[in-house]
Amino acid sequence: MTAIASGSSLLGLALVIPTVVAVLVMLLGRLPNLRDAASLVGALLLFVTIGALLPDVLAGARPVLPLVTIAPGLDLVLRVEPLGMLFALVASTLWIANSVYSIGYMRGNQEPRQTMFFAAFAVAIAATMGVALAGNLVTLFLFYELLSLSTYPLVTHKQTPEAMRAGRVYLLTLIGASMILLLPAIVWTAFVAGTTDFQLGGILGGKIGPLAMAVLLGLFVFGAAKAAVMPLHRWLPAAMVAPTPVSALLHAVAVVKAGVFTILKVTVYIFGLDTLQATGASQWLVYVAGFTIIAASLVAMTADDLKRRLAYSTIGQLSYIVMAAALASPLAAMGAAIHIAAHAVSKITLFFAAGSVYTAEHVTKVSQMDGIGRRMPWTMAAFTIGALSMIGLPPTAGFLGKWFMLAGAGSLHEWFAVAVIVVSTVLNAAYLLPIAARAFLKPAGGPVAEAPVAMVVALTATAAGTVLLFLFPEVPYRLASALVSR
Amino acid sequence: MSLVAMLASEATRFTIVLVMVAGLYIVIARNNLIKKLVGLSLFQSSVYLLYLLPGKIFGGTAPIIDPRFDVYANPLPHVLILTAIVVGIGTLALGLALAIRIKEAYGTIEEDEVLAKDRGPAGAAARKAGPRG
Amino acid sequence: MSFLAAIDQHLPVIVVLAPLLGAVLVALVRVEIASWPIAVLAALISAAAAFRLVFVVEQLGVVSYRLGGFAPELGIEYRVDAVNVLILLVVTAVSLVTLLYARQSVAAEIDGGRVPWFYAMMLVAMAGLLGMAITGDAFNAFVFLEISSLSTYTLIALGRDRRALVAAYQYLIVGTIGATFYVIGVGLLYLATGTLNLALIVERLPDVVSPRALIAAEAFILVGIALKLALFPLHAWLPNAYGYAPSAATVLLASTATKVAVYLMARFLFGVFGIHVEIGPVSVTGVLILLSLAAMFVASLAAVFQRDVKRLLAFSSVAQIGYITLGLALANPAGLTGAFLHIVNHALMKGAAFMAIGAVLLRCGSSRLDDLAGIGRTMPATAVALTIAGLGLIGVPGTSGFVSKWYLVLGAFDDGKGWLAFMIVASSVIAVLYVGRLLEVVWFREPGKAALAASEAPLSMLLPTLLLAGLTIFFGIDAEMPARLAGAAATVLLGGHP
């Protein structure tokens, strides 16, 4: 009982800490050192808070924190479960790395409006915690929208016409899709099931026909446009104009993960894997996601701009998770959950490396990267590890998730999914490995000159994390198996 | 009730409906803002009659208590209609005032011309090109 | 103590008299700088009385006040219960906030000499609306209806554009026809029952021999009120009236006028005729549902194509009224609660939206959509209020619009009409389009010359705007208070005719 009580106060803290950080950052705007310290300390505190929740959740506790009752039957409530725990853990861990990196990046590039940047960042983290810990769909929706809004100033940080255009596409796509598709889906669910609470095994089983279920799933999948399933993927490459720490936030820490997290959470806790499996309502999504994976990989091969190539890589990787969710088998769902963590830590490494290259040499194109690995060995070594993880090769984290997905698809005899995973692995290798090869094999052409220390530390740490996650996958594995147990 | 009374009562009802419909028709069909108001007043007047009809009691007298009479007309409708007439006068006055202001602003009180002027040169041109205004 | 008790006894009449006497005072004094404080004071007294009435009604259930001490048979009875006390509260509170907001907007939009008349007319309109809501006498309601209408025509005609005159004239014609229809219906009721007191009419209805008289009365009354509340397709007067009236007047009209008419319709439908009565082969609820749906879709679509923001919001009002009448037509507790909640919520958010546009009009001199481009950069606080109001109109969770629509959807399901719930959600998608179009221009479009030169709205306009926007958020997160009041109103209405 006391464990649950303390658990719920931890849930509250997870929202309060980043909010307080945002306020502090605004107040300390004139004192950059203190301001950045506030971000760092806040990130550490949040990590500790989320970490303190972990033992309880692994032991089977599900702390609840009711926030407010809007009207009877309409509550805002936080409730942690394994998948949300995993997402919160990933986001809070990477906030630390990202804070270190951002401080180096913002100072190294002498970016303007840093106070606004760090404040909006903290609000985005608060929203992410809300998404991760939401106990029902209405709560999730609110924080999901808050995440879209709070990241808008980050995407348009440079305030150039191009950045403003990207921000417009970003916000209109994300908010438009969630208003037109996600919200109706939630209302529909609420009145079919009589609740929007996340419950293991789903709340829709037997209450809605297979066809309606397929349509409803479509509303959820495309409504959560943050998951960037084609054709709602264009906002992600457009948002590449933002500073690299923002790209890292979008691709690794929060935004796209909030999208796939929503989809995975909905398939597990609203539809229920067994229900989806029995009705076949998610079969169409396997094909759509599979198409997205292949198409995004092909586009990535043709992109010369490094960040654009990484962006299309993200679109492909996200659809692995969507496809795994659509397979609706426990093994694949486990793979999806683990891949959320694995992709986060490896993609953030890749973006950190890209930003590091940009900060040190102002290089943005793949074709300009000849021999850069000899001048920036740490950076490009980290990049290579991240690339291996994207492809899914051991000893990196990317292998784990893919393995489970492959096993899940194979056990269901979903040969289409198996083929997609195999083909896309080859494609991933084809668009990522040449970069590493070019960087290390071409002549150096200059002395060793790394990016600022803070950035190198951050990207080395995440690269190490990518390997460590492969060697010690216990926490994500146990959380993922708790997700599908029973 | 005598036959005369019945006929009289039917005739009153018929008159009421006639005035009502005629007034409404003028409001809808006329283009002139003043004539519309005339129609509106007719329409309202029919309602005054509608109320006064049941107030009349044959053989009754004005509702002032007097030992010589014991049948009185119902005073309430008269009171109500007095109020309604006041409201009607207010409406008519305001309507006329608006018509004057419209005349000042547009130079006409024909509704179609007023509307056409706000549609701009394109509207005016289209009006000229058409067979009739 | 006895003084307070004496005031408590006369609360119903204070609510109406304060603005009426205030109007007379403003018109007599006729000094420009004195008019605004008098108007605010009058509205404040009225609002305080209405606020107090809420508590009195919660204790007593019904407050009956006999004007001049005459029995209801002959005299006029003011009758306050859970239904109209909510309306009184909304009208007085929003009017007060509107008047607080009005000072600078009016100074900019109205010629100096006419300012006192403007405030006098605002107060008369307020008194008329309050009178309509508070009276228990069908004919008295007509008189107050005309009082509010006549002052409304004047208010609209005070707009700067000459089209305001035409809008006022057209509204005068339509409004008078509507009011006359209403009074014809009341006359027929009087012929049938011999009384004008609503409560007494209800008592005597069972004895009425001729159902045809009742049917005719109901038809005339409902059509007459429908004109006032701009029920689709009788809404044609509204976009022009709202579009060309001075900003402060638009705020008052948009947030209160149609709501009072809705109340009157609810009173007659539930309190007098009974909602499930059929007029010949036609069921009232069926027609009402059909017209509400038409309003929700057609008016929303029309809003998408407007070029002037005031007109855009006006068409949105027609659509939102559709949601309210839909709630009435559902005639179950959840649906009615939704309708009355939406009366409150729509008053708040549409008030905030029109206030924001009024501020833009003051600073940029235009309310055309194109001229609003980029005002998010130069008038951020105003734009935020407009955004919140817009999200409320869509019904986004976290705003009060979501809560009222939630109840409406609940009501549709309780009635076994799942398809209606679908229609509510589908029509909200159209709201996404017109609100999205507006917000896209406000935030993402490159500012034009006027917008670049604009500065943030003055504080005296900004604070009331933000107050209403803030309440839209607050009631979206904690709807306990409005939901309780609306629920009580629904219970009373349904209890009248079980």
Automatic annotation (TrEMBL), chain A:
Membrane topology: Multi-pass membrane protein
Main location: membrane
Annotated NADH:quinone oxidoreductase/Mrp antiporter transmembrane domain residues: 134-427
Source superkingdom: Bacteria
InterPro entries found in the cross-reference section: CPA3_Na-H_Antiporter_A, ND/Mrp_TM
A Pfam entry, by short name: Proton_antipo_M
PANTHER family: NA(+)/H(+) ANTIPORTER SUBUNIT, NA(+)_H(+) ANTIPORTER SUBUNIT A
Protein name stated in the entry: Multisubunit sodium/proton antiporter, MrpD subunit
Organism listed in the record: Kaistia soli DSM 19436
Automatic annotation (TrEMBL), chain B:
UniProt cross-references to Pfam families, sorted A to Z: Oxidored_q2
Listed NCBIfam families: PRK07375.2-3
Membrane topology: Multi-pass membrane protein
Top-level taxon of the source organism: Bacteria
A GO cellular-component term linked to this record: plasma membrane
Localization annotation: Cell membrane
InterPro entries for this protein: CPA3_antiporter_subunitC, NUOK/Mnh_C1-like
Protein name: Multisubunit sodium/proton antiporter, MrpC subunit
Transmembrane parts of this sequence: 12-30, 37-59, 79-100
Family: Belongs to the CPA3 antiporters (TC 2.A.63) subunit C family.
Keywords in alphabetical order: Cell membrane, Membrane, Transmembrane, Transmembrane helix
Principal subcellular localisation of the protein: membrane
UniProtKB/TrEMBL annotation, chain C:
Transmembrane segments: 12-31, 38-62, 82-102, 114-135, 141-159, 171-193, 213-238, 250-270, 282-305, 312-331, 343-362, 383-407, 419-439, 459-477
Keyword Thylakoid: no
Single Gene Ontology BP annotation: ATP synthesis coupled electron transport
Membrane topology annotation: Multi-pass membrane protein
Domain NADH:quinone oxidoreductase/Mrp antiporter transmembrane positions: 137-430
Subcellular location: Cell membrane; Membrane
Classification via PANTHER family: NA(+)_H(+) ANTIPORTER SUBUNIT D1 (PTHR42703:SF1), NADH DEHYDROGENASE (PTHR42703)
Protein name: Multisubunit sodium/proton antiporter, MrpD subunit
Source organism per UniProt: Kaistia soli DSM 19436
